[in-house]
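We examine the record.
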Amino acid sequence: MSLLGRIIGSRIERGTLAFFWPDGSVERFGIKTDGWPDVALRFHDKKAERRIVTNPNLGMPEAYMDGSVTVEEGDIWDLIMLVRRNAPWEAGAEVGARKPLARAGEWLLSRADQVNGIGRSRQNVAHHYDLSNDFYRLWLDEDMQYSCAYWPEEGMTLEEAQTAKKAHIAAKLALEPGQRVLDIGCGWGGTALYLASLMDIRVHGITLSTEQLALAKERAEKAGVADRVTFELVDYRDLAAREPESFDRVVSIGMFEHVGQPNFETYFACLRKLMKADGVALIHTIGRFGGPGATDAFTRKYIFPGGYIPALSETLEASEKTKLIHSDIETLRLHYGYTLRAWYERVVAQKDKVVAMYDERFYRMWIFYLAGAAAAFEGGGMCNYQIQFVRERRALPLSRDYMLEAERRYLGK
């Protein structure tokens, strides 16, 4: 039996996995099980096995991207889900487990990659978000929401779930007419425009992506709200120094993952500084179920350089040092998994256009990223947190009823 077979084969209890080797030999693992995928991989050279065994978190995606490993039965989604479902996080399993010394090295490299000064933060954002607005239009919802949607009901479309997410967040902000709202990491402007459509408020969105900024400004002009909804290319640290205590409400969706653990305390100090004394902030971020960890090599190299998925414990510890009060915390367990499934299906449906924009290797990289992320939310240790913060304990009503009432109102229910 191959070394890879000995490592992976024992993990596959349900569903089947086959390896087709260059010398014509075949290895098979698992048992056919209803509802579980059957996957076959073809190895086009023996070097691919060595790459995967020595560094599975980087070796497997690179072998797939380069074409030295191809999926003969099923697809990359099936492969990743098969491995992850046979080793769920809740059972104490760890996919791609490495020796303690290797894990320590990964942790150190991950931390070094997260030292995100203002200049480096801009480079990291450009790496991912400045790919092309046309690329993201191919597979995001109509409002171009590139973060976890909210799926309170079965059978929702991606568009419906993203609208539900915006309403869910808006309700937690306890908005009132006349307020000034800051959107940190505003993306293509969808949330800012949505909030401004709810009532007479002013919203200022900030981003480090030139592509996002241009489209956000264009959308505000077309909507006729450029006098109330503005966008700026600026780092949150610079804005905090320039406009202290200027905002009644602050929202940040899918941005905290890019801050980096060494910068957590700075982030929350700036958040507090930007808020008025009776202000409210809502942070929507990917998080970990367990304690602090490290960013895997594939994500660090190809997808989100400088990024880090925070544990709730280290997030709250950093916020507490600035005397911000976490007034409400919600854990969204499977919602990002559903969102990523929808994105994956849309990217696969647009394969020819994605390949024409970039190339086959980029396409394989992107679907590996989406499938791997979905598996992390459906069977791994990833989730989403929505954390509400206040500076003053009397800033909000004593019960959470106001959230439900506002959410229903925003959705017209």
Remarks:
- Residues 360-378 form the longest helix (19 residues).
- The domain at 111-410 is CATH 3.40.50.150 (Rossmann fold).
